[in-house]
Amino acid sequence: MAGCFSRRFCVVCLLSLVGLACRRTPEPPGAGGGPVARASETARPLAAAPALASAAPAVEITWVDPAGLRRVPPKSPMRKASYEVPRAPGDTEDGELAVFYFGPGQGGGIDANVDRWVKQFAGVPAGDVRRADRQANGLREHTVEIVRGTFDPGQMAMGGATGPKKDYALLGAIVEAPSGAYFFKMTGPAHTVAAAKTAFYSLLDSIRASS
Q1: Nearest CA among 98, 114, 84, 129 for reference residue 174
Q2: What is the CATH number of the domain that holds 124?
């Protein structure tokens, strides 16, 4: 009887050990089979984002000083350049050519500026205002001519201009450049401006965008 009890006890113990072995939680893959690779060792580094291209500098324009006009120091910071237009025989004073540049997108539109120039002259019929569009070295130029009238720059006067001036003329041009509009304005006694017309258009023909 004691022998049977011993055999039963051994069988029960053996079955208990087998059950424990079956309930044992499986180990994760790789356990005991060598080191597990770390995420930091397998992840690829992110490619660096390309640097943003810097804004392209504004491309200004250059031109050749025309023969017969003398470059002088500008009378105001708004002027890019100034020229003295030598008086023609019979005229009592010199004319001037002023070049204005206000920056990209500044200075107003083409028609607004032409209208402002025209309004500085009295006694000029609308049909006597000559306007034209032209091209020079890939740049578009808008020109305006007033052959004769009474010129009064008003608040735009610079350099000691005093009161209206009779028998004055205007040669003007607005050049559309990559860096913004440039304004070329020649005023002076009618004969003086007429004598400088070739020099004025020679300057316009020489304008080009700087590289």
Answers
A1: 114
A2: 3.40.1000.10
